[in-house]
Predict the 3D structure of the following.
Amino acid sequence: MKHINPNMAFAGMLVVLVSACNSKVEQKPGQALANVNGEEITVMQLNDELSRSNAPATQQEAARKQALEALIDRQLLISEAAKEKVDRDPRVVQAIERARSVILAQAYMQKRLGTPAKPTAAEVEAYYSQNPQFFAQRKHFDMREIILPTREVNDELKAVMDKTRSLDDVAAWLDQHKVKYQKAQLSRSGSELPPELSAKLLALAKGQLFIVREGERSMLVTIADIRSSPVELDAARPQIEQYLVAKKGKESAEEEVKRLRASAKIAYINQPSPVADAGAPATALERGVAGLK
């Protein structure tokens, strides 16, 4: 039986039921818009839904109606959940408490730090010149790949890859051994890839095969072509500004947490204290503009 992560299920239900745009309903905040089995849905609730995403002005009325219907659907589900005492399930209680704590922490940070200042033109230009691999010297990679279960990547397959530079030959071997796989073609610029992967691709010869593992699946990849794809400063400026603002916000948040930790009394119970400066996996921000979506 497949187990469902309650946190993911809770978040997923909210995502499905929320649809909105940045418009306001011109009515009093407490005025009811609908009554669902005795429970009112108010203008304030609808305005909260409508503040969560953007929609063209021509679609605002449609978005308002859709958001109201979503609120009605949600209230029906909440009522049924209460009847079946779902709200008392320890996993649901934990998921709700986690959501509450995340919202409070984020609200505190927003109040404490505000919005980071927009980077100066000099800061943008410095980042551009210091990261030519993302911009002035950016490369574009055209690749072909075979996707298959990681368990099928054995020594015998690796030996075949070492003997040939043809992905088609590898596919023929997989067919012969009745290994299921999928073929794909992809094209990525250096700024869309983690720097370490981009550097690895540049070091490989055209047509050379290599393996990328992602948990239970692996990709057998070959480079079909590498071409220059430079980006001028003016075109890169909005992306760099977005990255630098996010980076400043992240650094400010880390400093605030550091300040709070310094003045707090923290005791680890029944477990060893973490090693100072143990390091952590790189985040999207730490991968530079390449981590931006």
